[in-house]
Each structure stands twice: as structure tokens, then as C-alpha cells.
Specification:
Largest sheet: none
Shape: globular
Number of helices: 16
Radius of gyration: 20 Å
Order of helices and strands: HHHHHHHHHHHHHHHH
Oligomer: single chain
Helix content: over 70%
Length: 328
């Protein structure tokens, strides 16, 4: 049995495990995965992307994506902390639109980073990305929800993970790899159409921590896309909310586990020097300590890394899409 086959089988097990636990303790599993597995994923993936030159033709221009991320972080944290005095009334009312514009422009600009290397073309692609981003937000229905809520969250952890798996199977055909992809496709259908909801008692502390995480917005937005009736009152024991949160918990947990399970194939641990390994280990332990002390403090401290790893992964996402759907 080859290493690739073993990893494919492991991922099938991880899908079952993530699904099972997400159905039983959806809120607790998500909070654990986001605080414990998440930071280690951010740091190791950013380091790996750096080793791979971010999959762009000239990594010097990654500083532009870095600038976008810093801007998103500053605006988002000011809104999260409700420090409205730092905004003029005009700027604050448009802060959500500006965050969405920065995110979608980063995605469009990543296409230019993959296609071009010359400075003039990079500048033109940057301007085009911003203009197209503004037009996208203005004229595409549900664009604000898709970009601001889902692109850095569920699209990143679920859809892009699936695309990476498809890309891997195309490179190295495997019946077990195909089986894992099929399972991943059907997981949300199983969650939403199965008649069973586990009557798990959610503690008040978990409710408070989850509301601090602001992932309530993801649940409400997800429901508004698929149901005509909005969630007027957020009831943690609602069957619908439990199912949506089970999917979120599954998607995040499997996303992280999938990354770590494919270490030997992706090779993110290669060229990881001892000093850098120790630095990542210390930062990871410190991040867990922050989340343990206060989940809100952990979110604030790790927000930049969380967003940066999403933004700088865009070029790789584009490369995967190109390889899958536009293969010559």
C-alpha cells in the first residue's frame, strides 16, 4: 500500500470522525478546532506558501496582498471592538463595503499575479481588480454575503479544500481519493436531510464564547440564502441552527485535519529549520493560551494571521481552478 493510498484512507476516516463529532457537539467542536488547530494551520501554511513563492510569478508583489490584509484587519477589529470614534460617520457606514472590496479585489488581483510578472501589467491588473471588485459588489446579487461572510469562511474551508482534493486526484489517480471527494460532497446533504438532531445541552459559557466569535453571522447568512424565513431569534437548541453549525464545525475541523494529514505529500514540513519550528511551536502554544484566557482576546490577536492565510492562498486557489477546469 503506497503512502498516497494510506493518506486517502486516513482522510476517509477523518471525514467520518469530523462528521460524527460535529453532529454531537457542533459548537464545542468548532470552538476547539478554531482555537487549537487553526493557529497551527495558519502558521505552517503561510510558511509553506512562502517556500513556494506563493505560487505567483513574482513574489515581490505579495506585499500588496499584505497591505490589503492589514487594511481588512484594522477595519474589522475596529468594528469588532465597536471603536466607532476612529471612523467618521461616512467611513463607518461604508466600512463593510470597503472590507468586501478589499477581499474580492485580492481574489481578482491574484489572477494577475499568476499571469503577469512585469510591473506595468501588475499595476494594470491591480487597478482592474479593484474596478471589477466594485462592479461585482454592485451588480451581483448576494455578493456582499458571498464575499464578506462566506469567502473567508465556508468557501475557504469547504469548497477550496474540495478543489485541492480534486486537483490531487487528477495528479495522482486514486479510487480512495475519489471516494473521499464524493463523501465530502454528500456530507452537507446528509447533515441537512437526516432526521436526527442530538439533544446535546449547550452550556452558557459555550454560548457566550460562540457569540463572541461572531460566527453567528455565518449561520444567519447561510439560513437567509436558503430559507425565505430569517432567523429572528438565535436559539441554540433550534434544529435548523444545530444543523447549520454542524456543517460549519465539520468543514473547519476537516479542513485543518486534511492539511495535517497530507504533510508527507504537500511537504509543508520540508526546509522547516529548527529555529523556525521552535518559533511556530512557541507562537502556537501562546495562541492557545490566549484563547484559553479569553476567546475574544484570541480572536483579536490571531485575526491578522487568520485573514492573511486566506488572502495569500488565493493564488493557489486560482492555480487549482485553472488546473481542474482549464486543463489543456
Amino acid at each position: 500500500m503506497t503512502t498516497a493510498v494510506k493518506i486517502d484512507l486516513l482522510n476517509i476516516v477523518l471525514i467520518f470522525l469530523s462528521l460524527f463529532v460535529s453532529l454531537i457537539i457542533p459548537f464545542e467542536l468548532f470552538l476547539f478546532s478554531y482555537a487549537v488547530l487553526g493557529p497551527l494551520h495558519y502558521m505552517t501554511e503561510i510558511n509553506w506558501l512562502h517556500q513556494k513563492d506563493y505560487f505567483v510569478r513574482d513574489k515581490r508583489y505579495i506585499w500588496i496582498l499584505l497591505g490589503f490584509t492589514v487594511s481588512i484587519t484594522v477595519i474589522s477589529l475596529l468594528k469588532y471592538l465597536k471603536i466607532e470614534t476612529f471612523f467618521s460617520g461616512y467611513l463607518f457606514s461604508y466600512s463593510k463595503w470597503l472590507i468586501n472590496l478589499l477581499i474580492v479585489s485580492s481574489l481578482f488581483f491574484s489572477i494577475g499575479l499568476i499571469l503577469f510578472k512585469e510591473t506595468k501589467k501588475i499595476i494594470v491588473s491591480l487597478i482592474a481588480a479593484i474596478v471589477l471588485g466594485g462592479l461585482f459588489l454592485k451588480f451581483i446579487p448576494f455578493s456582499f454575503v458571498m464575499v464578506g461572510v462566506f469567502l473567508p469562511t465556508l468557501i475557504h474551508v469547504y469548497l477550496f479544500t474540495m478543489l485541492f482534493m480534486v486537483f490531487g486526484v487528477l495528479k495522482t489517480p486514486s479510487i480512495y481519493g475519489v471516494a473521499a471527494i464524493i463523501m465530502l460532497v454528500f456530507v452537507p446533504f446528509f447533515i441537512f436531510y437526516n432526521p436526527f438532531v442530538f439533544p446535546w445541552q449547550i452550556s452558557e459559557s459555550v454560548k457566550i464564547i460562540f457569540l463572541e466569535s461572531r460566527f453567528k453571522n455565518v449561520i444567519v447568512s447561510f439560513n437567509q440564502l436558503w430559507n425565505e424565513i430569517p432567523i429572528s431569534e438565535f436559539n441554540f437548541n433550534s434544529g435548523l441552527i444545530l444543523k447549520i453549525q454542524s456543517f460549519i464545525a465539520f468543514a473547519y475541523t476537516y479542513h485543518y485535519l486534511n492539511w495535517f494529514s497530507k504533510t508527507s505529500i504537500i511537504g509543508w514540513n520540508k526546509n522547516l529549520s529548527k529555529p523556525k519550528f521552535l518559533l511556530i511551536l512557541i507562537l502556537w502554544i501562546a495562541s492557545i493560551a490566549l484563547y484559553t484566557y479569553s476567546y475574544k482576546v484570541g480572536i483579536i490577536a490571531l485575526f491578522f494571521l487568520s485573514m492573511f492565510h486566506v488572502i495569500v492562498e488565493f493564488p493557489l486557489n486560482i492555480v487549482s481552478i485553472k488546473a481542474i477546469f482549464f486543463k489543456k
